[in-house]
Design brief:
By secondary structure, this protein is an alpha/beta fold. Among the domains are: about 385-480, Roll (Luciferase, domain 3), CATH 2.30.38.10; about 480-605, ANL, C-terminal domain (GMP Synthetase, Chain A, domain 3, 2-Layer Sandwich), CATH 3.30.300. The chain has 19 helices and 26 strands. It is globular and about 80 Å long. It comes from Photobacterium lipolyticum.
């Protein structure tokens, strides 16, 4: 095992002194890795869990010294291969030691990695690569097979690099392998000796210079490439240190590849479990528990789907599985339910909270709320008050503006709505991206210039309470604006989260989804309902009447009188929580249209 911080000993951030903040014209987050390699070269940086064919777990490790030296060698080899500063390289490598070394090598060399979510689908992936116009494609054999089949990256890619597999496969794909590339550059030492390798002068970039392109999942629209700078990465590292209290020497169970890269940058070891990060709901809880216990992880970064999965496996037992080493749990990506947090928390020591974070690929993290405080907001949420996502983290300003689809060029404080007024969430801070890559229209719709800064329109609706806490009320695109053929009908807007959480209080309901449908030439709200597992409704009329009674008790839902039961909501594969309401709206409209046609036909027969 690589040596690390003594388990159980208190962490002291003064043990390893901070470097001076990066110069505005000499930015590169790899400075944090170089610092850790200089101060604690033998300490654990990365451990990757592997499962043998027999099902036995084993671990591959890198120390900070090895990771620094390994990435140095790869950066030099990439340069010699013709992949140089300013070029763009698709990186499709599964979480592994090579993934970490390659990513830091790209950053060191000033090569711009293009990172995509493999779960977004073949069509969306091709669009991402067509827009990004990569110069190089670095991937595992499976990624290269898909590249060849679907034409990813044509005609821009000029350099191909295969990671893993045999040299024979590389001959089929074109280009070379990482192993052959390092051998060509006379890098033949085993990783255990790599810390003795020659240094590499990392690229000195401007703070606002493009460092990476991260494509959003597309779960709420067409995937867009978010331009990341080293200043954004630095801001995120600062928040993780100062707001979340992460210190040098910790160990993190890293279940999301991008977040796992922050570990070495924070002087924290990233422990990568054997799981498909794009489908966390399929993870084997026992493998994750084993990784936590093997390395006595102190931190966990998990999305709501994993909180639910692990809670069901370990928190539902008569004697809950214990995770005594965990000191902090960070959840992001979608709101975790109170019930799943309660189950999961049974495994944690007293006083350890699940820290729920709000943000997006374009700006993360923005707010934070601990599970202890979140539990106290249940009554407000169940009565249509939205979901509390907490107070802003350091350096973040949150404003609520009136709902509009029009672009806003310049910011003015007069745009701010007062407390408790629902509108669109707009954010400003050092971790907020300035643009999308080659998507001028999307940038124009989402960005507002505020002197030298940029404000980002989140596309989410919410409000700020009197204490400055942010409450989420759903996506702007998911609100239902009713329309009528007469002036007497209800024309109030309906917001997804407040409405759905009211109806979710029914004991038979698992979850609901608000959609808009056209009925009798008017746009009206309709609620799709998914029942809890094992629940069967014999009389839908009586069940819908019960839902109507619940709706009449609240101003937010009084006008919702149409309901449909759906067997299984379509959701995104990563979070298993983001409902594809657009698909449900099409489904619901089809059923409503059939019913109206049937009524018209019946009326015609009677006449």
């Amino acid at each position: 095992m690589v040596k690390g911080h003594e388990i159980g000993a208190p962490f002291d951030s003064s043990e390893v002194p901070d470097l001076e903040p990066s110069d505005a014209n000499k930015a590169n987050i790899c400075r944090h890795l170089k610092r850790a390699a200089a101060e604690t070269p033998a300490a654990l940086a990365v451990a990757v869990q592997k499962k043998s064919f027999a099902g036995k777990l084993r671990y591959e490790e890198l120390s900070f010294g090895q990771l620094d030296a390994d990435s140095n060698c790869i950066a030099q080899a990439l340069n010699d291969y013709g992949i140089k500063r300013g070029m763009k390289a698709v990186l499709m490598v599964t979480p592994s030691l090579d993934f970490f070394a390659l990513t830091f090598a790209l950053f060191k060399a000033g090569i711009i990695p293009i990172l995509v979510d493999p779960g977004m689908g073949v069509k969306n992936l091709k669009q991402c690569f067509d827009e990004a116009k990569p110069d190089a494609f670095i991937g595992i054999p499976k990624a290269h097979v898909a590249r060849c089949l679907f034409g990813w990256g044509k005609p821009n890619v000029r350099r191909l690099l295969t990671v893993g597999g045999s040299g024979i496969l590389a001959n089929l794909f074109g280009g070379t392998t990482l192993k052959a590339l390092l051998k060509r550059n006379r890098v033949t030492k085993p990783r255990s000796q790599m810390h003795q390798a020659t240094d590499y002068d990392i690229a000195q970039l401007k703070n606002d210079e493009m460092a990476a392109i991260l494509f959003t999942s597309g779960s709420t629209g067409t995937p867009k490439g978010v331009v990341y700078t080293h200043a954004m990465f630095e801001a995120q590292i600062s928040v993780l240190k100062n707001d979340y209290g992460i210190v040098h020497g910790e160990r993190d169970l890293a279940t999301f590849p991008l977040f796992s890269l922050f570990g070495p940058a924070l002087g924290m070891a990233s422990i990568v479990p054997d799981m498909d990060a794009s489908k966390p709901i399929t993870a084997n809880p026992d493998s994750l528990f084993a990784a936590i216990e093997q390395y006595q992880c102190t931190n966990m970064f998990v999305n709501p789907a994993l909180i639910e999965r692990l809670g069901q496996a370990g928190g539902n037992r008569a004697k809950p599985h214990r995770l005594p080493s965990i000191k902090r749990v960070i959840s992001a990506g979608a709101p975790a339910t109170i019930s799943s947090i309660s189950r999961f928390s049974k495994m944690l020591s007293a006083g350890v909270e699940v820290l729920n974070s709000y943000g997006a690929t374009e700006s993360l993290p923005l707010t934070m709320i601990g599970s202890e405080h979140l539990m106290k907001t249940t009554d407000v949420t169940d009565n249509g008050g939205g979901i509390c996502v907490g107070l802003p983290v350091q350096g973040v300003d949150i404003a609520i503006i009136a709902i509009t689809e029009d672009p806003i060029v310049d910011w003015d404080d007069s745009l701010r709505l007062p407390a408790n007024k629902i509108g669109e969430i707009v954010v400003k801070g050092p971790m907020v991206s300035r643009s999308y890559y080659h998507r001028d229209t999307a940038t124009e719709q989402a960005k507002i210039t505020d002197n030298n800064a940029i404000r980002h329109r989140m596309g989410d609706l919410g409000y700020l309470d009197q204490e400055g806490k942010l409450w989420m009320c759903g996506r702007k695109a998911h609100r239902v604006e009713t329309s009528c053929v007469n002036s007497e009908c209800d024309q109030q807007p309906y917001f997804s989260i407040p409405c759905e959480r009211i109806f979710n209080t029914h004991p038979c309901v698992k979850r609901t989804a608000l959609v808009g449908v056209e009925r009798n030439c008017a746009m009206v709200p309709l609620l799709c309902v998914e029942l809890k597992k094992g629940v069967e409704i014999d009389d839908t009329g009586s069940f819908f009447d019960e839902l109507k009674v619940i709706g009449t008790k609240h101003d937010q839902t009084r006008g919702i009188t149409d309901f449909l039961i759906h067997p299984d909501f379509p959701v995104d594969i990563r979070h298993n929580a983001k409902i594809f309401r657009e698909k449900l709206a099409v489904w619901a409209q089809g059923i409503i249209s059939e019913k109206e046609q049937s009524k018209e036909s019946s009326a015609g027969v009677k006449r």
